[in-house]
Amino acid sequence: MHTRFITFIYIVVLFLPSRQVLAQSKADKKMAKQVEADITYLASDDLEGRRTGMEGERKAADYIEKRYAEEKISAYKNQYRYPFHFVYGKEIAASTQIHIGGNSMRMNDDAFPMPFSATKHVNSEVLPDVMEQGNIWMIPLYTDQDQADAPHFEAEKFMFEKAREASKQGASGIVFFGNFGGKWEPEFNKHSEYDPLTIPVVYVTHQAYQNFIKSKESKGGISIDLDITINKSERTGHNIAAYIDNGAPYTAIIGAHYDHLGYGEDGNSLFANAVKEHQIHHGADDNASGTAALLEVAKWIKNKKLSNFNYLFINFSGEELGLYGSKAFVKDQGIDSSKVAYMINMDMVGRLNDSTHSLQVGGVGTSPSWAEVADLAGDGFKLTFDSSGIGPSDHTSFYNAGIPVLFFFTGTHKDYHKPSDKADLINYPGEVEVINYVDRVIARLDEDNQKPKYTVTKQKISGNFSYKVTLGIMPDYTFQDGGVRVDGVSDNRPAFKAGIKQGDIIIKLGDITITGMQTYMEALGKFTPGDKTQVTITRAGKDMVLPIVLTGK
After folding, report:
1. H, E, C per residue of 95-120
2. Of 355, 363, 369, 348, whose CA–CA distance to 434 is shortest?
């Protein structure tokens, strides 16, 4: 599930009568066995986290295609696989060379260009304390050790603003250097939002500064040669689409993303040092569970011979990067809302809690037809409804195209976006219950044989405000009893360092009372990176006040 969206605001919680878990039928047991086989493979080490555009994604796509073929469900428009290309950021070209004082800098270890650097070759003999027009300038990054150690120091912003001003004053290039050894050495930010400058800009690490620059600063000039090339980081993902053509006037779309985080290389892991420790993010719940569920739903529709709609099944990639796959499919395939009945999305449906039986259903405000969805749930679910068509998964792309949507989700957990999201933690009987519920919804819609009316939903967060800071928590989207309950804490972010734990309820940030997500977002907008304040939480029925230092998002 994608993390960059503003969280849901839920409009109603429905409690259905509790029941004892009934013995599974033979059909359900068979389904659970197949779901387990699918998830076990998709979340295996061999697929290396199914990162979009990587070999693990290709293996997953091969497997999904094979499963559709085994169930004799045809490819969409005579092909299962639909590649999509996108620019995901910036990268340092292999041809880039940085030479200082006659020494070739090792890329990233000794030095690297900033992502806003110009692609250009410049060289000059530099006097470190002399800022002459036409020459490369050398600028220390820090003013003192405290600044080097400060977690809130925005190094990239500082370097961009300094370099931009220097270029206006005639500098032909800039070398920033780590004059103090800080705890947070800058790194190349491939997702930098700063526009390219007209001159090359590089950063030299503190260790390289000690080795190659410091000893020469008092001995006259230093020769610097910068041959910099910054490229766009382009990637290709692959959606998978299967189709049951009933010759009907309208098509129902059922989808789930199958990509995940790889080793966390794209910066969306919640596990500290994920890349350095080279840990696979298995993504069993997120979203091998939805992928397995989609295969079962497709098989069920085919076997039941539902025929009043055509049925398009889409396994998306690129969801974790920003819904790239679903956006591309809507655009590239010319999805026409006048010919689509509805879209159902399943993302993280593998962790149904046996105690609470809590299931979240999103998008219920996108059509009046969804009013009867609760009646189809069956005995035992605790349903939480969200009215909005916009949420943290691929149904958003279809809602934005004018299509009524429904979104099924069993909730976040402590393993979310971490290597520990593994197949042995999936509640397989619980996932079967969710699949059976989705099947009942699809059957009723097919029986009604009516295209649901599309309605526009309100934005989840209102008000003209923005925020630059984060606590580093994953809110519990089902919680509606005042405050924001913490469903996950990102390692080494402000909440983690303050001692906030899963299950805590945030009720105040500074002097601002938190009553829900709306006031939480507004409160964040009152702070800037580096601000020190207090966060008030409720833990086990007792209020606690914790000091916290806020950092940038």
Report:
1. CCEEEECCEECCECCCEEECCCCCCE
2. 348
Q: By C-alpha distance, which of 318, 99, 107 is closest to 230?
A: 107
Q: Which amino acid is at 493?
A: R
Q: What is the pLDDT of residues 197-244, one digit of tens each?
A: 999 999 999 999 998 877 665 566 789 999 999 998 889 999 999 999
- The residue type of 533 is T
Amino acid identity, residue 188? F
Is residue 525 a contact partner of residue 533, using CB atoms and an 8 Å limit? no
Interior CA angle at 228 toward 223 and 231, to 5°? 170
Distances in whole angstroms, Cα of residue 200 to Cα of each of 9, 18, 106, 114, 494: 45, 65, 17, 8, 34
Of 180, 191, 117, nearest to 153 by C-alpha is: 180
Residues 121 and 46: their CA atoms lie apart, in Å, by 42
Q: What does the alpha-carbon distance between residue 166 and residue 168 come to, in Å, rounded to a whole number?
A: 5
Which DSSP helix (H) or strand (E) runs through 403?
none
Q: Name residue 486's beta-bridge partners.
A: 475
Q: Is the pTM of this model over 0.85?
A: no
- Provide the CB-side half-sphere exposure for 260 (13 A, CA): 36
- Coil, strand, or helix at residue 145? helix
Beta bridge partners of residue 36, listed in sequence order: none
Nearest to 192 by CA among 263, 112, 123, 246: 112
* Residue type (1 letter), 482: G
End-to-end CA distance of the chain: 18
Closest CA to 314 of 344, 287, 351: 344
Q: What pLDDT is attached to residue 220?
A: 67
Give the helix/strand (H/E) hosting 33: helix 26-42
Rounded to whole angstroms, the Cα distance separating 256 from 234 reads: 24
